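Structure request: Peptidase M20 dimerisation domain-containing protein, Periconia digitata.
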Amino acid sequence: MAKEWGNQGSVKVRRQNEYSRLIKFAAVLLTTVFLFRNYITETLAAHWTQNPTKFEAKCPQVEPLYPSQSTKELVDLEEYLTSDEFRNKSIEKLAGAVRIATQSFDDIGPVGEDPRWDIFYSFADYLSSTFPLVHSSLQLEKVNTHGLLFTWPGTDPNLKPTVLMAHQDVVPVPDSTVEQWTHPPFSGYYDGKFIWGRGSSDCKNQLIAALEAIESLIEAGYIPKRTVILSFGFDEEISGHRGAGHLAEVLVKRYGRHGVAVIVDEGMSVIDNWGQVWAVPGVGEKGYVDVEVTVRMPGGHSSIPPEHNGIGVAGELITLIEANPYDPYLDETNPYLSLLHCGAEHAPSFPNKLKKLLDKRDRQSTCTKKHGKDDLALEAAKLGPAIKYLFTTSVAIDLISGGAKANALPERTQFTVNHRINVGSDSKAVFTHITALAAQVAKKHDLALIPFNGTETPSSITLSVYKILEPAPTTPTFEPRLTPFDVLSGTSRAIYSNELLVAPGIMTGNTDTHYYWNVSEHIFRYGVGWDKEQVGLGDIHTVNERIGVQGHVDGVRWFVQFVRNMDEAEL
Ligand SMILES: *[C@@H]1O[C@H](CO)[C@@H](O)[C@H](O)[C@H]1NC(C)=O
Ligand SMILES: *[C@@H]1O[C@H](CO)[C@@H](O)[C@H](O)[C@H]1NC(C)=O
Ligand SMILES: *[C@@H]1O[C@H](CO)[C@@H](O)[C@H](O)[C@H]1NC(C)=O
Ligand SMILES: [Zn+2]
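Returned structure:
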């Protein structure tokens, strides 16, 4: 259409009579106008073709997504999944899984040596008898003994697989807290609405829902186009390297770097923000680093003490660290920035002040955004600490030890500073920050400063690191092309209601997915079952963990539809 206008314009430039000068002037004017319109129209057209429904919007919502292909069996399945009969069976399956106490302990020994791992054999047996079709139709590999990797090969080997993750292990229940549970922690008690017990919502619900979905699809005769993989680690609560660490390695070797289309693991579910209900699949995770600080100063008898000893100096440094926290900062890739855009665009009670700052920021240059004072982040931080730390590096001194005797000066005082690193920052920035603070204290007390990887000397402050995890790469969300985020969004809006909007979420904690960054670019930490009557995360990691059955059953329906939608998506 734009091209035709251009031709008309040039046709009109032809002149043949004595009014030629006037006509020429008019023609030039017209041509200019036409060419300009032509340019604008072409630009618009380019936008529209790339992105017909998302033009200009920062938080475009995809329509509820239903698979276009079906069979009688699949239609029957959809109905069956909403029946009481299925609900009852589902309760049995999840409650049975909760009754097997697959606790992972911080001090547990190697797999194959420490007998506390043996319970995972019982869990695998339970899954095998509860999901016979999954076990007869899918290939099952045991990775590092207890890692479970199921593969359901698709008919089109050119399509990248869908991976569904969950972990088999649960946080231990200390003996001292058993009494506080309304229903015993490994009872799987069903009270008519909730299933109670450790692991019921973190995250045996997700694991069992994925298996129920695949079992049902097999029963309905479904044959996937895209390979479906279930990958279940067994030590997520104590780092995940034995389970997820090994499973991810197998997947990268088998499918290549980023050879998997999408990963869905446990994570965030639904929040109510600014008068709007949002599903917030986690598309990013903050980083993590523990810095250990060791202050070495001369010992001696405490009856003739120096003005400051090791404990005093350590205390001074701790005070300095707490007095110099990190500023809130919203990197362009921080999912919370997208959530703010979503709020501004769709939520009825989004704060006006934030909206103004957001607009102002959108007009700024990239350089100002990166290096200027982040007024938007400072304002958003006022929403409370739980929000502020979604875009601020946190600092907490969590461990301290020093001194051996009441009448002896401490020779070695140690403390550990835990950091959760902001998206857009990295561990290096943390090292620089804490090194500068330690240098001030070292200088004042005439101590050597030994920053990272050095060897401790008698009068010194030494810094060392023993766990580093950089912030996760952010999963693509609102892109001009179709992405797995769109499939996930459309599936959620179809299962739950199109009044539910979908926005990017960010996790302050870490999941097993941090081993999977090379497996796929499209990682979602998403609790797929949403129980409308359950607020928050269902007391995970504490007493009275429980899961609403309706949310669990809807989670099964979600997985079934997601697998089918992924099969039809041209990704
Ligand atoms: C489901 O279980 C409830 C109570 O446990 C029972 O009353 C009901 O009849 C069962 N429904 C079906 C269809 O099995
Ligand atoms: C310590 O040394 C290791 C290996 O040489 C290196 O990768 C790491 O970056 C160093 N750490 C710091 C904080 O300099
Ligand atoms: C991803 O692959 C690179 C290159 O092989 C490797 O250095 C890195 O550790 C891997 N990342 C993860 C999270 O496994
Ligand atoms: Zn978990």
